[in-house]
Design goal:
about 220 residues, 7 helices, 7 strands
């Protein structure tokens, strides 16, 4: 994946209308993060029987996605298991001037979600330019534990980006792909990469893919 230059910026989201489409594990993680930022949230899910474990007051629309669901949105998160639907959401968001983050589809993203460390008004953001979001979270854990940034982490991130792109074409749900990538970003996978190289990590990835999404619970 070609590296794309990004401009780091922090947004004030208190009271800002944000739409999240998709109520799987990925979508619900976005909702919880947006709640902490004080955003006004509309969650769109076609699963009418879904009862999201979400404290607080948010708008839940139990319908298949339609462009009107983005009305008044400033930010949009496309988190469905259908890549074509996510791409359409991204296109519709662009038409109304809203910025979009399409889960697992960097090419359809206007912005990425960095991992952050906060102490009062001081923030440290850790990002991978959208190439390996789970890795940013793992680096955050290491920094909080007082550990240095790992050696060859850029090379490791580039390999995770390649794998993520390949898995995006596989017959897997968004939640399953996300779980595999989160495992690949953990220290065990990094140690496999450092000790035995790229192919060893790919072999580990194959083992993870053979597990069902439930095996990660």
């Amino acid at each position: 994946m070609k590296s794309v230059k990004t401009f780091p910026i922090m947004l004030k989201l208190a009271g800002v209308q944000v739409v999240v489409v998709g109520a799987g594990k990925v979508g619900l993680r976005k909702v919880h993060a947006l709640q902490e930022a004080g955003a006004t949230i509309r969650l769109v899910t076609s699963q009418c029987d879904v009862q999201p474990d979400i404290p607080g007051d948010i708008e839940i629309v139990r319908e298949s996605y339609m462009p009107d669901h983005l009305n008044d949105a400033k930010l949009v998160f496309a988190c469905t298991n259908d890549r074509d639907v996510n791409a359409k959401i991204a296109a519709d968001a662009s038409k109304i001037g809203a910025l979009v983050n399409a889960a697992d589809q960097p090419a359809d993203c206007d912005f990425y979600m960095p991992a952050t460390i906060q102490d009062g008004d001081v923030f440290i953001a850790i990002g991978t330019g959208g190439s390996a979001p789970a890795l940013a979270g793992e680096i955050k854990k290491q920094l909080l534990a007082g550990k240095p940034i790992p050696n060859r982490i850029g090379e490791f991130a580039a390999l995770l980006a390649e794998i993520r792109n390949e898995l995006s074409q596989a017959d897997m749900t968004l939640d399953h792909r996300s779980m595999v990538m989160r495992k690949l970003a953990e220290s065990e996978a990094y140690e496999i990469f450092i000790a035995s190289g790229q192919q060893a990590l790919r072999n580990y990835m194959q083992l993870l893919c053979e597990n069902s999404a439930e095996d990660f619970s």
